[in-house]
């Protein structure tokens, strides 16, 4: 989605996509660094987030922002998160895929908000 929005913002010219890293083009609103980058980016800004919509800044709702909500297939989220948890050290050992799936379906697993929030992602030009 970030690539598509970046190309739209640049009228189809891929040079910006090739020369500016993802985290600078569409910073994550829920991180302090991402928030600071987003505020410093030229308008129209591209912003990414996994935050629930009710946690967005109030100014967002009074703006002319365009929002794109991307939803992932839960099976894709499960497999992707399983492999990520196996290599990302702050996560506890996910066990087997079957064990991980049971925890995933329960909404638990000790892996932070990923279980609850990784099905959807807000992005948009703000």
Automatic annotation (TrEMBL):
<dbReference type="InterPro" id="IPR027417">
    <property type="entry name" value="P-loop_NTPase"/>
</dbReference>
<comment type="similarity">
    <text>Belongs to the sulfotransferase 1 family.</text>
</comment>
<feature type="domain" description="Sulfotransferase">
    <location>
        <begin position="1"/>
        <end position="108"/>
    </location>
</feature>
<protein>
    <recommendedName>
        <fullName>Sulfotransferase</fullName>
        <ecNumber>2.8.2.-</ecNumber>
    </recommendedName>
</protein>
<dbReference type="Pfam" id="PF00685">
    <property type="entry name" value="Sulfotransfer_1"/>
</dbReference>
<dbReference type="InterPro" id="IPR000863">
    <property type="entry name" value="Sulfotransferase_dom"/>
</dbReference>
<keyword id="KW-0808">Transferase</keyword>
<dbReference type="GO" id="GO:0008146">
    <property type="term" value="F:sulfotransferase activity"/>
</dbReference>
